[in-house]
Amino acid sequence: xxxxxxxxxxxxxxxxxxxxxxxxxxxxxxxxxxxxxxxxxxxxxxxxxxxxxxxxxxxxxxxxxxxxxxxxxxxxxxxx
Length: 80
Description:
This protein is α/β, with parallel strands linked by helices. Helix content is 45%, strand content 12%. The protein has a domain at 11-64: Rossmann fold (3-Layer(aba) Sandwich). The protein is built from 4 helices and 3 strands. The chain has a 3-stranded parallel β-sheet with strand order 1-2-3, with helices on both faces. The protein is globular, with a radius of gyration of 12 Å.
C-alpha cells in the first residue's frame, strides 16, 4: 500500500488519508500500513484541522465516525 512506499523513501513522513470511503476495514488497513490518520471527506469540515494537528504532533487520528472501532496496533501498545 502507498504509506509503506512513502515511508520507505521518507521514514519521517506523516501520512493522513482523506477519502470518500466509509469502510472501517479500509481505515484499519491504512493505519496498519503506516498512515497516521484517516478523515472521511464528508467530515473534513469538522475533522481535517484536528487530524492535521494530531498527526503533525505524532499522534494517530480517526474521526468520531469510527469511535466505536479499535484501530490499536501492537506497536501502539509499546508506546502507551
